[in-house]
Structures are given as C-alpha cells and as structure tokens.
Amino acid sequence: MRIAVLSDIHGNLHALDAVLADVEREDVHEIWCLGDVVGYGADPNDCCARVRQQADVVLAGNHDMAVTGELSLDEFSRGAAIAARWTQEVLRPEHAAWLRSCEPTGEARGLGLYHGSPRDPVWEYVLSSLLAELCFDAMRQRIALVGHSHVALSFVRPEGEAATGEPRRGGDAVDLSTGEWILNPGSVGQPRDGDSRAAWLLLDLDLWRAQWRRTGYDIAGAQAAIRAARLPGSLAERLEYGQ
Predict the structure, then answer these.
(1) Looking at residue 219, which CATH number applies to its domain?
(2) Residue-wise pLDDT tens digits, 189-203
C-alpha cells in the first residue's frame, strides 16, 4: 500500500497540480491530505475541487476552519485574516460545506492523522524533540502524520530512548519498521523550510518506508494569481523563498 501524503495546500493551484502530476507518476494507491486546503492562495475553489475528487482522506486545518467560521479570525495574522476573509467571499457554497464536514484529526490504515499534533490537532506546531516527546505520550498509534508547520521533518522515539528529530530534504527516506514516529510531509502550497519547491511524502506501508519528495512548480504563476486577486503582496513574495 503506497500513499501520497499532502498537507497545507493553501489555495496554491500551481503547486497542487504539479504535485498531483508527480503523484500520478508513482504507483500510489491512496492520497491523504492533512488539512489547510485553502488560505493564503488565490485558487481555493479549484484546490477544493481537486482534493475532493482525488484524495481518499482529508482533514480540516485551522485555515479551513477559519474560512468556514469555526475559528475566529482574531487568532490569525493580518495577512492570513485578509486571505481568509477574501476566501470566504469567493468560496463556492458546496466547497464551504465540504470543508465544514472535515475534522482536524483522523485515523487511516492504523496511522494517526492530525493537522497540528496529537495533543492539539488544530493549533500545536510540532517543531522540537521536547514537543514530540509529549506527543508520543499522547498518541494511541505507533506512527502519526502531522502538518501545520509547513516544515518537512521527522521525529522518532526508539523503545526505551528519548525522542529525536531532524528536518527532511527531498529524497530523504526513513525505515519505519521499528520505533514510534511523527512525520510531517511539509507544505504543498507554502513551504517554510527554505526550499521553495512543493513538498509531499511518499509512504509505503508494505515496506514500512517513508520518502520525502519535492516538486518544482510555476511559482511566478502562483504569485501572479495572488496579486491579481489583490491579496497581500507578502503572500506572493514568500513563495519565492520558501519562507
């Protein structure tokens, strides 16, 4: 069973289409999305349509929940709040209803799925070994997938040892056959680890292997779409730098 794990698409259709084309070239049986289909980017309707059509599992992210009114925009930065309000105005009712039906946590094939973390699936960023240790204690499953931070990384806790973690680059792979793991595929639509290419994770549950992937896409096109929608220019500029 080979699974493509996507997260944090954020309305970036150019990045999503490039990743889906990459996924199509692999022998993938399912696609899982860990949330934040919308927010920041200029193509929320098309991104929702793509994910609804192709993904087998979809979580709700905090930006999705803000757009549907489940979270207050007071919790968001100025640029994120502006993008969320704009998305509320342009999002088709059927896509809004679909996003509202999603939850920020789930389980598939025996793996725990969380937008944020096993302790707080909406808001917590798992970016340190200390937080990972606390999350391992809270997990029911041996392996969990998380998004939210836009950083591709992994944490592992071998039996009887403390948790350790490291960022992951495109092509990195890990053996998941032993120990407890927390894996973040990185962000499709707005990476924040210094690599501007779209990020995703190829998970093989037969071999118990995970490989991080990076996919180049038309960043200039995504930037032009953001500017044409008159969203904050900073949301376009950051795509170029992977920040």
Answers:
(1) 3.60.21.10
(2) 999 999 999 999 999
Number of domains in the chain: 1
Mean pLDDT value across residues 225-243: 96
Residue 52 banded pLDDT, cuts 50, 70, 90: very high
Q: What is the mean pLDDT of the chain?
A: 97
Helix (H) and strand (E) counts in the chain: 8, 12
Q: How many whole angstroms separate alpha carbon 147 and alpha carbon 31?
A: 15
CA distance 58 to 65: 13
Report which secondary-structure segment, H or E, holds 83. helix 78-90
Q: Answer for the pair 28, 202: CB distance below 8 angstroms, yes or no.
A: yes
pLDDT at 137: 96
What pLDDT score was predicted for residue 125? Answer: 98
Positive or negative, the CA dihedral 174, 24, 222, 75 is negative
In the prediction, which pLDDT does 149 show? 98
* Closest among 104, 36, 44, 96 to 64, alpha carbons compared: 36
Output the CA–CA distances (angstroms, integers) from residue 183 to 21, 47, 83, 88, 206, in the order listed.
Answer: 23, 23, 28, 31, 17
Structure tokens at 180: 């407890």
Domain region containing 195: 2-241
